[in-house]
Amino acid sequence: MLRTMITATNTMGQLQHKLDTVSNNIANSNTVGFKAQEATFNELLYQQFNNDKLDRFERQTPVGIRYGTGAMLGQIQSNHKQGSLQQTNRDLDLAFTKPKQYFNILMPNGENGTETVYTRQGDFYLSPLENGTVMLVTAEGYPVADAAGQAITLPDTVQSFAVGNGGVLEAAYPNGDIIRTELAVTEFQKPQLMEHIAGSYSGLPANLVELGYTPAEVLTELAGADRQQIGMQSGTLEMSNVNLSKEMTELIQTQRSYQFNARAVTLADQMLGLINGIR
């Protein structure tokens, strides 16, 4: 009975992680550029009991009893399928029209520095600075990087924006001047190696070298002639790719599995009570 409890409680803990993943997907179903997370399970170690060696019937599993110890969450992967595009008619709402292309964002790393993270969330804003300029930032206030890896700053008299070919941001001014800035765009070659940071942001994992890869094998900076591969349009946002029907089905199935394992713990406890009550 104790082994039954251990098996059930091991699985319950992992099912709770899947519930958290599904709940996070549902909560971000309206988050711009969000990519759904998909959790898969693996079987834990099991013990083989060869208690019936005379059984000669053909079967796909070994003869005897296989006593498992539960299941574990094998991996959580991001679904990088492109979400639907929604027209907003706002100059600083930018969306990619091709998959695997991401904006470069400069996020503080907690050590008085910044690290480059990646997102398809293109609802950008202007944050005023002290010297009569403005900075292009995300909805969370993180600077957007240009092709040189620097934060994009412009004079604060900017009037309107547009996106030209090759991911060039064109800022128009009342006197007719136009300042053109190449937005930094990165293409994921191996998107499943990327690590989810928060919200719609992804970054390179800290153990990338241990996994046997280099940043150049995972990411491609679209620069020079490669910038013609960039598909981007303004006045549009890419919505999340969360399938609510699928997520609700996963939520119900996971909850039922959790209840089943909880019931197994209850039954094991009741049977132990009966055994202890025998005099």
Beta content: 25-35%
Characterize the overall form.
Answer: elongated
SS field, number of helical segments: 3
Report the count of strand segments. Answer: 20
Which sheet architecture does the biggest sheet show?
4 strands, antiparallel
What is the CA-atom radius of gyration, in angstroms? 26 Å
Query: pLDDT below 50 for ≥5 consecutive residues: which ranges?
Result: none
Topology as a string of helices (H) and strands (E) = HEEEEEEEEEEEEEEEEEHEEEH
Percentage of residues assigned to helices: 10-25%
Oligomer: single chain
Terminal Cα separation, in Å?
19 Å
- Structural classification: alpha+beta
The strand line-up of the biggest sheet is 8-7-15-18
Average pLDDT confidence is 87
Short summary:
By secondary structure, the chain is an alpha+beta fold. Helices cover 23% and strands 32% of the residues. The strands form eight sheets. The chain has a four-stranded antiparallel β-sheet with strand order 8-7-15-18. It has a three-stranded antiparallel β-sheet with strand order 9-10-11, with no helix packed on it. The protein has a three-stranded antiparallel β-sheet with strand order 12-13-14, with no helix packed on it.
Task: Show the helix and strand layout.
Elements: H1 2-27, E1 37-43, E2 46-49, E3 65-68, E4 71-78, E5 85-87, E6 94-96, E7 101-108, E8 114-119, E9 125-128, E10 133-137, E11 153-155, E12 160-164, E13 168-172, E14 178-182, E15 185-188, E16 195-198, E17 201-203, H2 215-218, E18 219-221, E19 232-234, E20 236-238, H3 244-276
Antiparallel strand pairs: 1-4, 2-3, 5-20, 6-19, 7-8, 7-15, 9-10, 10-11, 12-13, 13-14, 15-18, 16-17
Helix pairs in contact: 1-3
